[in-house]
């Protein structure tokens, strides 16, 4: 390789290293701010309550129309929040 191409490659590697470092810090920030989904929180709460010996009581039960259940399930299948 010539000196010019070696110098260009070194500059490119340095630039890519800077960009990679910036992206890694952004990903770390996003992971730190990530919210815990509600269903996971409910599952963890139930597990801790059961472990500590708390007996849960069912407060209310609602009977739903089958069509509403199917509509909501289809809606949740397309919801892609992270």
Write up what this structure looks like.
The chain has 82 residues and is mostly helical. It has one domain. 68% of the residues lie in helices and 0% in strands. The chain has helices at residues 3-32, 38-51, 66-77. It is elongated. The model has no long low-confidence stretch (mean pLDDT 81). Its EC number is 2.1.3.1.
Structure characteristics:
3 helices, 68% helix, Clusters with Methylmalonyl-CoA carboxyltransferase, methylmalonyl-CoA carboxytransferase activity, coiled coil, mainly alpha, elongated, EC 2.1.3.1, 82 residues, single chain, transferase
Ranges where pLDDT stays below 50 over 5 or more residues in a row are: none
Task: Tell me the series of helices and strands, N- to C-terminal.
Answer: HHH
Q: Give the terminus-to-terminus CA distance.
A: 47 Å
Largest sheet: none
Form type? elongated
Mean pLDDT: 81
Structural domain count: 1
In total, the number of strands is 0
Sheet/helix structural class: mainly alpha
Helix content: 55-70%
Strand content: under 5%
Question: What is the tally of helical segments?
Answer: 3
Radius of gyration, whole Å:
26 Å
Coiled coil: 6-33
GO molecular function: methylmalonyl-CoA carboxytransferase activity
EC number: 2.1.3.1
Keywords: Coiled coil, Transferase
Write the layout of secondary structure elements.
Layout: H1 3-32, H2 38-51, H3 66-77
